[in-house]
Each structure stands twice: as C-alpha cells, then as structure tokens.
Amino acid sequence: MTAKLKKFITGIVLLAVIVAAWLFLRPILDIGRSIRNDSRVSNKGNLSSVRSALQIYYGDNEGRFPTDDLSCLTKDNKYLPELPPLWVKYDRDHPHPQTNEVVVYSSGSGGDTGKYAYMNDPAYPAQWGNLFVDCTHPDNGKMPWSTF
User: Fold this and answer.
1) Under a CB-based contact definition with an 8 Å cutoff, are residues 106 and 120 in contact?
2) Residues 33, 20: Cα–Cα separation, whole Å
3) How far, in Å, CA of 57 to CA of 94, rounded?
4) How far apart are alpha carbons 26 and 34 in whole angstroms?
C-alpha cells in the first residue's frame, strides 16, 4: 500500500468514527432538552388542571368564581385532591422551588413568587377568576410564565 492510500483509508476510518460518535451522542445530548421541555409541559398541564377545576366550580356555583385562595377546590376532594405542584424540576430554566401554594390578588398583574396567582375579587369582574403562574421569568419559548 502506498502512503497516500494509507492516509486516505485512515481519513475514511476517522470520518466513520466521528459520524458514529455523533450518532451515538446526539440522543444523549437531547435528553437534557427533553427534560426541560417535559418540566415546562408539566407546569402548563398542571395550570390547565386547576383552570379546569375552576371552570367546573364556576358552573356548579351559578357563574361565581371562588373568593378564597382556591382551598375550596380541594375541600373534600370535590374538584381536586390537591393543587398539582409547579416547578417540579428546579434548575436554571425553572427559577422557583416546587410549590402548590396560591398567592391571591384582588387586581393587578401579580409579581414573581413562583406560585399560582389567583384573582379572587368580584369587585374587579374583568380579572375575577383569572389564574396564572406568578412568575416573570421566561419559559423556553421566551414568554413570561405569567402569560400562560
């Protein structure tokens, strides 16, 4: 074999090893992204669960939302056994610790507690019954959590 042929074969083998390593490592590197997306989806899904319970409560109570801290939703397991937790995965993409607590506002836009935020004052009918995540940090899609 000539020296040129050896270099060529070595280059081909090296290229094959690089491609194989990339094919092997790519799914492993995507796991981190998947975990972050799963956590994001979990927060949004849990928020949707509480919103659904709120709508059922609204229907059961002649068009009136709760005026408490949503503890009525979990009383006697009528609507939910407990509020599902937010921030199950605590990392740089989820800047708050896990919680299922509710912060209550009568009006305004909330703050950055990382808790569920609920507008409970019927004196402000445009906001009464609104539920959102009380967080100004962006999610992976660069939207503040409070906009969901």
Assistant:
1) yes
2) 21
3) 30
4) 12
> Which pair of structure tokens corresponds to residue 45?
């899904």
Using CA atoms, how far apart are residues 104 and 120, in angstroms rounded to an integer?
A: 7
What six digits make up the tokens of 124? Answer: 């402000």
The single residue listed with the structure tokens 């074999």 is 1
Helix (H, G, I), strand (E, B) or coil at 4: helix
List CB contacts of 67: < 8 A, sequence separation 6 or more.
120, 121, 122
Q: How far is CA 7 from CA 1, 12, 16, 21, 50, in A?
A: 10, 9, 14, 21, 64
| % of the chain residues with pLDDT over 70 | 86
Q: Whose structure tokens read 């950055």?
A: 112
Instruction: Summarize pLDDT for 95-130 with one digit per residue, the tens.
Output: 788 899 999 998 877 788 989 999 999 999 999 999
Other beta carbons within 10 angstroms of residue 74's beta carbon come to 16
Inter-residue contact 123 to 105 (CB < 8 Å)? no
| Total Cβ atoms within 10 A of residue 72 | 16
User: Hey, where are the domains in the chain?
Assistant: 3-147
